[in-house]
């Protein structure tokens, strides 16, 4: 969060499985491929697309990411990378009580299935305590 990491260490790589025109959703790697094509670097089916999140909340999906080949500054979306960093342990450890809010970061996205499991576990614990 303090910017002490090299932006090259944050590059995400994703395979472009089909031609850009065939995608119905503008996934980050597709947006990066479009930006590469606009800049004159041809990105086509089968290419490994590399990008960095620079402003994941931008209204324009093409501006949320920057292709690795077009990075001109060390700016990146710290909140997005923190969110991604906490997704994995929360998915695995939520049944044991791990929650990203313990680290002062509340997820503002829609509920995931593991949140329901966590809430049910909390209810079971409260119920068991009241029975004692």
What is the SS-derived class? alpha+beta
Q: State the share of residues found in helices, binned by percent.
A: 25-40%
Instruction: Tell me the distance between the termini.
Output: 44 Å
The CATH homologous superfamily of the largest domain: B family DNA polymerase, thumb domain, alpha/beta motif
Please, how many domains? 2
Total helical elements:
3
With strands numbered from the N-terminus, the spatial order across the biggest sheet is 1-2-3
Rg calculated over all Cα atoms: 19 Å
Oligomer type: single chain
Mean pLDDT: 85
**Number of DSSP-assigned strands:** 3
Helix and strand layout, with pairings?
Elements: E1 12-15, H1 28-38, E2 48-53, E3 65-67, H2 78-93, H3 113-131
Antiparallel strand pairs: 1-2, 2-3
Describe the structure.
It is elongated and about 70 Å long. With 132 residues, the chain is of the alpha+beta class. It folds into two domains: 7-70, B family DNA polymerase, thumb domain, alpha/beta motif (Ribonuclease H-like motif, 3-Layer(aba) Sandwich), CATH 3.40.1820.20; 78-131, no CATH class. It is built from three helices and three strands; from the N terminus they run E-H-E-E-H-H. Strands 1-2-3 form a three-stranded antiparallel sheet, with helices on one face.
């Amino acid at each position: 969060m303090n910017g002490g990491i090299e932006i090259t260490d944050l590059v995400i790589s994703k395979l472009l499985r089909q031609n850009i025109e065939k995608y119905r959703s503008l996934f980050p790697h597709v947006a990066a491929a479009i930006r590469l094509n606009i800049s004159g670097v041809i990105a086509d089916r089968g290419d490994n697309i590399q990008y960095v999140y620079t402003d994941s909340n931008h209204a324009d999906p093409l501006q949320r990411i920057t292709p690795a080949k077009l990075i001109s500054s060390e700016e990146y979306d710290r909140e997005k990378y923190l969110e991604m960093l906490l997704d994995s342990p929360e998915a695995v450890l939520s049944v044991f009580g791990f929650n990203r809010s313990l680290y002062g970061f509340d997820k503002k996205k829609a509920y995931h299935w593991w949140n329901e499991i966590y809430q049910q576990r909390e209810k079971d614990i409260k119920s068991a305590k009241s029975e004692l």
